[in-house]
């Protein structure tokens, strides 16, 4: 019995879409489906998984741009992010059209099946993930933490020795630093962090080596 993890880089920005599944129940979720929907659907079918939900950390196009295409293949509920990212989802068609020159697929706008708030709990099979709201990169950014597996799906909040940009519309550096220090850095040091881009890290490593936000 285990929680299986497959990180699938998608879009020209190589965003880490993550496929999580319980190998006892074959129930699966996708986090941050930014693109490559047909390819990912093929992986899910090949593994004979039951896709329960799509979870979104925030509304940037490289994290949500494949949702509409996936829902044309399978009518899967879309959960999150926090409602403060509504303005990003309402502008998705414009953004994907604008970024087509960089190789992004066009997507129409969409709304999630439901928004998320701090303290909610999501599940895939027998594994529960707590929702933490950490604004700063975007106002509605959330992350997903599985205490049982010591696993954090961090989106664009925390990277290996870096943090998310705050120079986008409605970004806020102070909010991002505060959320990392008061919520993420209080998690156990052996928690594995899957960021929105690049390689994984741990909470313990970032508390020591992250030059942007050091532990207090």
From TrEMBL:
Coiled-coil ranges (or none): none
InterPro entries per record: MBL_Glyoxalase_II, Metallo-B-lactamas, RibonucZ/Hydroxyglut_hydro
Keywords, in A-Z order: Hydrolase, Metal-binding, Zinc
Requisite cofactors: Zn(2+)
Domain of life: Bacteria
GO molecular function, one term: hydrolase activity
CDD domains: YcbL-like_MBL-fold
Signal peptide boundaries: none
Record Gene3D superfamilies: Ribonuclease Z/Hydroxyacylglutathione hydrolase-like
Metallo-beta-lactamase domain span: 14-197
Name the record gives this protein: Metallo-beta-lactamase domain-containing protein
Organism: Simonsiella muelleri ATCC 29453
């Amino acid at each position: 019995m285990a929680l299986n993890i497959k990180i699938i880089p998608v879009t020209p920005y190589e965003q880490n879409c993550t496929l999580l599944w319980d190998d006892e129940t074959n129930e699966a979720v996708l986090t941050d489906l930014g693109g490559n929907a047909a390819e990912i659907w093929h992986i899910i079918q090949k593994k004979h998984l039951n896709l329960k939900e799509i979870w979104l950390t925030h509304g940037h196009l490289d994290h949500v741009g494949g949702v509409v295409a996936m829902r044309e293949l399978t009518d899967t509920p879309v959960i999150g992010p926090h409602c403060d990212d509504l303005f990003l989802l309402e502008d998705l068609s414009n953004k994907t059209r604008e970024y087509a020159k960089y190789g992004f697929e066009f997507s129409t706008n969409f709304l999630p099946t439901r928004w998320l708030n701090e303290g909610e709990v999501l599940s895939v099979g027998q594994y529960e993930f707590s929702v933490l709201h950490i604004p700063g990169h975007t106002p509605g950014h959330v992350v997903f933490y599985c205490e049982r597996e010591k696993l954090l799906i961090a989106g664009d909040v925390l990277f290996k020795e870096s943090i998310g940009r705050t120079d986008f519309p409605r970004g806020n550096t102070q909010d991002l630093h505060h959320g990392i220090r008061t919520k993420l850095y209080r998690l156990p040091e052996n928690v594995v962090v899957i960021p929105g881009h690049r390689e994984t890290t741990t909470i313990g490593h970032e508390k020591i080596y992250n030059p942007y936000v050091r532990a207090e």
